[in-house]
Protein 1
Amino acid sequence: MEPTGTTGAPPPDGASAPLEAAASEPVNEPAAAAPAAQPAAAVPAAGPPPAASSTPGWVNTVTSTQTVAGPAGMTYADVPARIFAYIIDAIIMGVAFGILYSIFLALFLGSALSGFELMTFVWFVVLVLIYAAGSAIYFIYTWTKLRGSPGQRVLGLETLNAADGAVLTQPQAIRRWLFMFGPFVLAQAASLMLGGLGMIVSLALFAYGVYLLYSTANSPTRQGFHDVQASTVVVKVAR
C-alpha cells in the first residue's frame, strides 16, 4: 500500500520564484555619511601696494653714503665738498676778473677823479654785466662739456641730470645758473643803484645763500633748491 501524503511532492512551478527574487535583490544598506566639509583656508588680505620710490632709476640709493648705479661707482656729493669746489671756482673767476677790473680801473680812474661820476657809474654797471656773462659762460660751458665746473672736477664731483645721470642740456644748465647765481648778480646791480639800501639787499642775498645750503643738506639726494628747479644732482665719482 503506497503512502498518500503530499509532504514529499515538489512545489509547483513558479512557487519558488518570489523567494529566489527576494534572495537575489540587493539589500539597501544605509549610505555612509559624507565627510564634513573642511573650512576653506583663509586667504590673507592683500596689503597696500608698495609706495612708489622717488629715487631716479639710475640710482640705487637715497642716501649720500651709499653708491649710485654706474660703472664708475658714485655717491651723492656732500655739502662741504660742494662748498670747497665753489671756493676753487671763485678763486679762478676772481683772478680772471681781478685782472679785468684792474684794467678798467686804470682806464677810468682819471674820469672818476675828474668828476665824471656818471661815466664811472656806467662803466661799473658794464663791469657787473661782464662779470655776470663771464660767470654764466664759465659754469654753463663746464657743466655741459666737462660734466662739472673746474672746482668740482678737482674734487671728483660731477653735475648731472637727476633723471638718468646724463650730461646737462644747455637749457638745464642755464636754469641751474639762474637759480644759483642770478640773485647774486641782481644784488650787485642793486647795490650800485640803491645806495643805502644795499645793506638790505646784502642781507637778503645772505639769507638766500643760507637757504640753498639748508635745502641741499636736508635733501636725501643732496639736491638744493637750485638743483630741484633744474632737475640736476651733484655726485662724487669714485676714483
Note: The CA atoms of residues 44 and 140 lie 55 Å apart.
Protein 2
Amino acid sequence: MRAVVYHGPGQKAFEEVPDPEITDDGDVIVRVDATTICGTDLHILGGDLPEVLAGRVLGHEAVGTVNDAGSAVHTVGEGDRVLVSCISACGACRYCRESHYGQCLGGGGWVLGHSCDGTQAEYVRVPFADTSTYPIPSGVSDEQALMLADILPTGYEVGVLKGGVSPGDVVAVVGSGPVGLAAIMGARLFSPSHIVAIDVADRRLEAAKQFGADVTVNNAMTDPLPTIQALTGGLGADVTIEAVGLPETFELAVALTRPGARVANVGVHGKPAALHLEDQWIRDITISTGLVDTYSTPMLLRLLATGQLDASRLISHRFGFDDFDEAYDVVSRPADTGALKVVVSR
C-alpha cells in the first residue's frame, strides 16, 4: 500500500510500504477513506518530537471501513464505517478507568503516527478497537466525522473544559487556527458573554467570526489587552485558551488574564516558554495543560448527528491520495493559503 512515511526532520515521502496486519486479537484493519494533516504532524517534521523515529507512517486521524477484525473485537465488524480516534485506549489501566485515555498505561494513548504506524495511508492497524474506534451515525458524513478524530475533542476538552468556561465569561482564544476555531465552537456551547479571537492573520480572524467570536484582534498590529480590559472593567479575561504552541503566545495568554482566571494551554510546544512567576505568583491564576482524552467524542458525534454542530465548516481544502505533497504544502503555509483543515480522501 501507499503511505506518508517520515524520514527525519524535514523529510517525508508518499511511498510503498507493507500492508498492516493484525498483531493482537483486539486489532482492526481499517481501509482509510479519508484522513487529514494535523499541526502535530508539522511539529514532527520540524523535529519537535524526536521520539518519532524515521520510517514511521504519519497521521492519527481517519474515517474508514473495517476491512478485518481480530477475534476479540466486539463493537465493530467488517464493513462498518468507523471514526478512528487519535487516542487509543486499553480500557483497563488506572488512567483509562478515570477516562484519561490520553495517559493510557496499557499501550494506548497517542500511538498512531507516533509510536506505531498512522493513518496517512491506504490502510491502518488500529489497536484496542473496541475502545478506540466509533461507529459513524447514519446521516453523518465522512468529512464531518473526521473533524472528531482529534481537533474538536481537543479544542473542547483541553481548551473549553479544562479552562472551565462558564456562562457570562469573557474568553480570549490566542490563535485562530483549526484548534482555536474548534475551541471557539466549543466555548459557544457554554454561553460566554464575549469570545475574543486573537491572531496575526486577518483571514483566520474572519473565520473566527464565522465560528462564534464576537471580537477579533490582529495582535501583529494591536495589543489585545486594552480590548479585553474594556470588556471586563479593566480586569482581564476570565479564561484564555492558548492554541498556537509558541513561547510568545503562551506568555500572551497569561498576560491577558484577570486575577483568579484560568489559562488552558492547548498548543503543542517545541521550545521552552517562560512562566513569569515573579509577576504571577500573587494573581491566583490556574494553568492547565493536556493531551486530549477523547472522552467527549460520543457526545460530539451526537451533536453532529442532530445538526447542533457543523464540523464541515472547519474544512478549507480537499485533496486526493495522490496529492499528499500538495496538501502538506498548503497546510504548512496557512497565512498564504487560508488553510484550516484539509481532507485527503480516496
Note: The chain has two domains: 2-149+293-345, 153-288.
Protein 3
Amino acid sequence: MMDQAEKLRKIVNEQNRQLENSVSKTRKSRVITITSGKGGVGKSNFTANLAIQLQRTDRKVVIIDADLGLANIEVIFGIVPQFNLTDVIYGRKSIAEIMTPGPLGINFISGGSGIQDLIHLNSQQLSNFISNLSLLDEYADIILIDTGAGLTDSVINFSKAADEIILVTTPEPTSVTDAYSLIKVLCKNNLIPNIKLLVNRVEDDEEGKEIFNKLYRVSKKFLNIEINELGYLPYDKNLIKSVKLQEPVCISFPNSEISRAFRKISYKITEDEPQEEMNSGFTSFVKRLMHVFERNN
C-alpha cells in the first residue's frame, strides 16, 4: 500500500507542470511571511498595521492568517470571517469567495487548518486548489502571511517556503534567544533565508539597534548569514487602546508615534522591491510549501 509520503510525492510531481503554467500566465504578487520565535511579541498587530500602511501606498494587500491555533487578525480587525482556506481546498468556495473585506480595502483570509490539509488531498482536490491560487495573485500586489509563533512545524514550514521573511522580536532576552533559534533552524539544509528583523516595543531606536546588532553578529559568526534591518517600533500606549477598540492603531491613532514608525517601515518595504525573478507569486510559494511537506514525510 502506498504510504502518505509516497502519495504526496506523486501528487506534487503531477502538479509541478500545472503550477509552472499557472505562474507563467499570471501577474505575481510579492509574498512576505511574518513570523516570530515566540508568542506575545506583537506579530499579528504588526501584520495588520503594516497592511494598513502598505495599502495607503496604493498597494493592494491580502493577509493570510496562517496561525493555526489563534485567529488574531480577525480579532484585531473586529471582523469574523464566514469561510476559510479549507473551504477552497475541498472545493466548497473559491478564493474570491473566502476573502473577507477589512479596513481600507484590505482583504484577509482565515487559514483554518487549510494549508496543513494539503497533505491529505487527492490529485483532483489539489488541482482545484492550485487553479484557485493563480486567482489570488490577481487580487494582491503584496500578500502578508501571518504565521503562528515559536519553533512549531507549521511556523518552520511556512518560513522555509518563503522568499521573504520578517522576523519579529522584542528586547526581552527570551524573545531574542528564540528569534536566533528560529534563524538557526531556517539555516539548516543549506537554506539561506532572506530575513528582515523587526524589533518591537523598544524604548528608543538605540535599543532597537543594539538588539539588531546582537543578532546580526551571532548570525554572521556562527551561521555565516547576514540578516537585514527592517526597523523598530516603540512601546506606545495607543496600541493598547486600539486593541481594546478592535481596530488597528494606524487607523485609531494615525498620528501617533507608533503609526509614524509603521509608515516608515512600509516605505522601506516598498522601496526594497525584489528582483523580478524573486517576485514569484503565491502559487510558487505553495509549490515550495508542498515540497517542504514532501521532505518532512
Note: The beta strands are 30-36, 61-65, 100-101, 107-110, 142-149, 164-169, 195-202, 228-234.
